Amino acid sequence: MERNRTNRIQIGAISIGGGSPIAIQSMTNTDTRNVQATIKQIQELKDAGCEIVRVAVIDEEAARAIRVIKLQTDLPLVADIHFDHRLALLAIENGIDKLRINPGNIGSLQKVKEVVRAASDHGIPIRIGVNSGSLAKSVQEKYGLTAQAMVESALEHVRILEKLNFTSIVISMKATDISLTLQAYELMSQHVHYPLHLGITEAGTSWFGTIKSAVGLGGVLTRNIGDTLRVSLTANPVEEVKVGWAILRALGLRKKGPVFISCPTCGRTEIPLVEIAEEVETKLVGLQKSLTIAIMGCPVNGPGEAREADLGIAGGHGVGLVFKKGEIIRKVPQDQLIDVLVEEAWKMEQEDV
Questions:
Q1: Domain map of the chain by residue range?
Q2: Does domain 259-350 have CATH number 3.30.413.10?
Q3: What's the CATH fold of domain 9-250?
Q4: What Rg, from alpha-carbon coordinates, does the chain have?
Q5: pLDDT tens digits for 185-217?
Q6: For the whole model, what pTM was predicted?
Q7: What is the sign, positive or negative, of the torsion defined by CA atoms of 178, 227, 99, 72?
């Protein structure tokens, strides 16, 4: 896909926009003041492939905790701050890599100037975030609950920063309604060249939220819009990272790690396909190489239909085939299929080491 070209923004060691890979984000659900619990969860998110982590900064103690947390992780950290400009200043002082704060909500212009000056001095970008459920009353009265209202609300914050010559800006336009989200991002992409942070807000629990996020974020991404994303689930945030990667891999937008394909079960299936597919995915967690791995239920759907896969198996009556790039390389007993497939996948990983 030829993505919309946006400005490049640096967040710690990660760049977004300007053709950079779409970055996966999540947010801790620990109390940031509980430093050890927060560090532990950040490491879990990193292990799952998270590239940028947001933490809630609810008071001065949380802002000061950033300094200690930064000593134990190399992931870029984003401070989530609402209304209190002093917390933004304290977060910057303690080494935060990015702010999520709306300048129009922190009081006087003087307060905004203080934050902008500190952010500029430290090379800290600011993300402006607009959610459909928290639009300014005046904007909603004028435009209704529409994409235009969301865009205009975000642009009000953008203009404040631009008047202060601050342009290290990222914008998010999240709604829980998929159509509204699509329209808002499309419209915003026509107005600005700032990087866009994608999300479907309040998507729901793991099962339904995953589906809703895949449909909504996939819709925006297929319009070549988006520079970073967070999947918002009512679940362990590690699940958000896994889903985010799955969406990007399914669209061919990121190549890290395997893509699994497997056939639907039918009357020809002679192996416990569901259990095998799930076990293979579990055993290949951590595989970094971009591989398409096929798990097929019978020889009919084996090397033929899955010939484009880098590696795969096809079950049979007590035996199965292992194939690579469409060519059968081994015939093994059914109870060895998983181990052989996993072994071959890790061998392919080592080929690039």
A1: 9-250, 259-350
A2: yes
A3: TIM Barrel (3.20.20)
A4: 23
A5: 999 999 999 999 999 988 889 999 999 999 999
A6: 0.88
A7: positive
